[in-house]
Records
---
Amino acid sequence: MSNGCEYMQLHDKTAGSYVDTAFIEGAVDFLIPPALRQEPAWQDIVETGYNVMLLHNDISGFARDFAAGDVFNSVYLLHQQHGMSPDEALEHAVALVDARIKDFLQQERTFAERVTHLGLPDGDIERACDIIAKLKVGSQGCLGFYADTNRYTVGQEPGPAHLPPTFQTTTS
């Protein structure tokens, strides 16, 4: 399931990833300059960061969604469209989110050098990097929410059966 597949594109539009990024911009009182907003490096890291959150949500909610027959879940789609067992689909989705996390961390490490050609002031690039860091923290907060809420319970079972990986705070 690629970043650009229809399901992930629909999720990007309906889950509010760009609206959420605008909230971060408002909270730090810095709007991403238009040239940077149109830059593939910016678009890629925002998309990848939100794909991590969306996949975390789908993994955490899979048991409930599967029990309810809710097909708007990437793990469920892997199960149905690719003939995977539910456990195989869940394992594949965890591998996908792990890969997206690695992609995000690599993009974060190289972001400033990838946008130097825009000629933006260093302060603008630093503030954009701060927004990227807050996007990463937001993803970690979502994962904590998924673990702590009963939104993902099925029957009397506590919380999600499988918690996906989360961002590492080191740059290994």
---
Amino acid sequence: MSNSGVCFVNGKETRIQKITTSLSAFGLLMQFSDGEKYILWRDSVSDEHYRQLLLSLKRERYAP
């Protein structure tokens, strides 16, 4: 994910529209500009990477 909200999902470039973090203890609900939605489960990535992602999202203000 870049600072502009652009990331690659399943091999295609897309832009993050909204991320719901209300249940971040379990995972993140990510909505992209093309309407696709994905859940990133917390246990699907390392704790370090998950924490880094949460901090990055808070800085970029994608999350409410």
---
Amino acid sequence: MIRKAEKKDLARIAEIHILQDFLLNLFFRIPCTLTTCLFLLSGITMQHYLLVIWSVIFGIGHIFVTNKNRVE
């Protein structure tokens, strides 16, 4: 039988693994996010809405390519 303390330890370990996975995914997406935000902010400030649309498409494509090229 698993004691309450062991259940808490297992829950904490699971939380740590989830956090590690989140941070790892975020680390690999930061270059994509920065570039996309730069294009998006430029399009919004200059009121070039076609640039805004293409920045969103670029961001989606860049994240897709980064995920495909990531080594596990």
